[in-house]
C-alpha cells in the first residue's frame, strides 16, 4: 500500500465488532458428535478471540 500514493490512511474511531454464527441443521443438533465438534469450535474461537477481530 505504501507504493500506492492514491491510498489514504483512515483513522479508526470505533472498534469493529463482528459476529460469527456456528450453523448446522436442526436435525443433527441432538447428535453427540455434532455437540462435541460445536463445543470444540466454540472453545477454540474463544481461546483465539484476537484472531477473529
Query: What is the β-strand count?
Result: 0
Q: Name the overall outline.
A: elongated
Outline the biggest β-sheet.
none
User: What would you report as the Rg, rounded to the nearest angstrom?
Assistant: 19 Å
**Total helix count?**
1
* Fraction in helix: 25-40%
What structural class do helix, strand and pairing data support? mainly alpha
Residue-averaged pLDDT: 90
Strand content: under 5%
Q: Regions with pLDDT < 50 over 5+ consecutive residues?
A: none
For the record, give the distance between the C-alpha atoms at the N and C termini, rounded to a whole number. 21 Å
H/E element string?
H
What descriptors fit this protein?
single chain, 53 residues, mainly alpha, 30% helix, 0% strand
Structural commentary:
- The chain is mainly α and 53 residues long.
- The chain has a domain at 29-53.
- The protein is 30% helix and 0% strand.
- The two termini are 21 Å apart.
- 0% of the residues are buried.
